[in-house]
Amino acid sequence: MRVRAHAALNWVGTTAEDFGTDLQMLPYPIGFNGFIDEGLKNFTNWEDFYGPEKIGDDQFTNIVQPMEVAYARTGLPGVFEIPEPWFKPEDTIIVTDGHCASACAYVVGMMTRELGIPVVAMGGRPIDAPMQAVGGTKGGPVITLRPYQLLYPALGTFVSPPEDVDMTPFAKPDPPLAGMPTETWTINSANIYLDDDLEGTPVQFRYEAANCKLYYTWDTLTNMTNLWTAVADIKWNGGKCVSGSTTNDDGTMGSSTLGYSDKVVSNFTWAAGPGDVIEGSRPDNGGGGGNGTGDGNDEDQNAAGSLRGGGGLLSFLMFAIVVVFIM
């Protein structure tokens, strides 16, 4: 996975490192606690983690992967051995209704792409075409806004950001207007890529159909046992899928999936209403950070060198923020 590389992120990482903060203790993506590189090695410094790498017209960090996911694939000799699975992939079937996102998307993605476990998608539009198993976001780790609202002002106490780094959205941890508490604001923070396409299209923008689509009936909608019986019939007894939703000509579930086609394009038209933003230009996010090269070596160091004496206090503040992040 990769997170977008931008000026604010680079300033936070380089400044924290300048003050001697252990980036292994800071939450992703302002640190790399719990993450390793594609070669299963720890990151040694901010530049090693941040990069950036140019993909298309955008800047992204280097590839990272969660430690627990990486070792779940390979094991860790002497520490963690991969156990025998309770069920073989060929004896397993996944059922979704499209309401699958984030962690669900991650698990379903690994089980289908790496183990070849087939998926039956329930419901969907009344069309003779496939349906995607995952209908929600396929983005990376969920992060909350609160820790970053605490961290950015803490850094600003010791050193001001460069003029091209806009920290305005984080100036006030508690907005003056009434609304949802900031600790409830969450986003998926990163793009996830396939192992053989690390500089290609994130899975969020890939069409990935289920192996079979099955419409609900009154019996399957009101009784979970009936639903699983219908799915088992598809998997083991040659039951029929919705026409056009499988690779097999006879309507049974195939071992592969159908690709994208015009048949799955939605005909829904959004009706514009008050406050809708229909058209607009993309704002400038300040580039890759630092002096434009992404290495953080600005000619004006913003007094970072003269403030190194405050590194101990800054580290303490960051430790407190990490505790808040964990809690």
Automatic annotation (TrEMBL):
Coiled coil: none annotated. Keywords: Membrane, Transmembrane, Transmembrane helix. Residues 276-304 are annotated as: Disordered. The chain crosses the membrane at residues 307-326. The keyword Transmembrane helix applies. InterPro entries: S41A_metabolite_peptidase. Signal peptide: none annotated. Residues 285-295 have a biased composition (Gly residues). The keyword Metal-binding does not apply. This is Peptidase S41 family protein ustP. It comes from Colletotrichum spaethianum.
